[in-house]
Amino acid sequence: MLYELAKLTLQIGAAPKALPGIKAFVADGETRGKLLGCWSSEIGELNKVAVLRGFSDAEGLRAERKRTLESGDPFGCRHVLTHLEMDSYAPFPDLPPIATGAFGPVYEIRSYTMKPGVLPELIASWRTALPARVKLSRNLIVMHTIEGPPRLTHIWPYASLEQRAEIRGKAVSTGVWPPKGGSDHLAIMTNGIWLPTEISPLK
Fold first, then answer.
1. What angle do CA 72, 42, 195 make, to 5 degrees?
2. Is pLDDT above 90 for 91?
3. Would the CATH topology of 1-91 be identical to that of 102-198?
4. Which one, of 48, 47, 49, 16, lies nearest residue 35 by Cα?
5. How far apart are CA 42 and CA 87, in angstroms?
């Protein structure tokens, strides 16, 4: 499974106006991707909607990217869309495909720009650390870009901001998290809290 994470920057307060178009665009008969999540930003970068889709192969992902780039109305919301970013990702080895369901409703989407040439070391350190971390709370996905700037993105659902703070505090205090070698592997970090929209399969 491959993934596309698109971040749509919208006019202020325009997310409700954008959702019907987004829903129609990703459900179009030409698309090969499966809508997994659609969130609106709550803390961090504001006036954004994140759309996560899964693809069974690279050909389908490329075809859908081409359709989006050539569309006169990308994601069906050009009337309120001010900026569009689309990244293609592969999951870290041995992780199961993303399953949809009610795991939130608070989702943390955290991304790091990787230093050059560190992906094999990064995968090894995360493979070691992740099993103990997921005993504390569910991980949705850990994935790396397969084009453009080298980036690592991971997504974590929580029941509340309070639960997130409690679990993250416990993970750090017990030495479970973060994976070793972070400063050697990672250059720039961005983070945000996102809430599911009404069209999101991930709740």
1. 80
2. yes
3. yes
4. 49
5. 21
Token couple for 111: 């991304």
pLDDT single digits (tens) 132-188:
999 999 999 999 999 999 999 999 999 999 999 999 999 999 999 999 988 889 999
**Buried (b) or exposed (e) across 113-126, using 16+ Cβ within 10 A?**
ebbeebbeebbebb
HSE value, Cβ hemisphere, 13 Å, CA-based, for 60: 15
- CATH 3.40.50.1980 is the classification of domain 102-198: no
DSSP 36-99: EEEEEEEESS-SEEEEEEEESSHHHHHHHHHHHHH-SSGGG-TTTEEEEEEEEEEEPTTPPPPP
Tell me, yes or no, if the pTM score tops 0.85: yes
Q: Map out the domains of the chain as residue ranges.
A: 1-91, 102-198
Could you please state the CATH topology (level 3) that the domain comprising 1-91 is classified under: Alpha-Beta Plaits (3.30.70)
For residue 25, give Cα distances in angstroms to 51, 53, 116, 197.
Answer: 11, 12, 35, 15
In Å, how far from its chain's centre is CA 119? 18
Report the pLDDT value the prediction gives residue 29, as an integer from 0 to 100. Answer: 76
User: In one letter, which amino acid is 155?
Assistant: I
Nearest partner of 190 among 86, 45, 12, 37, judged by Cα: 45
Q: What is the dihedral of CA 8, 83, 47, 7, to 10 degrees?
A: 30
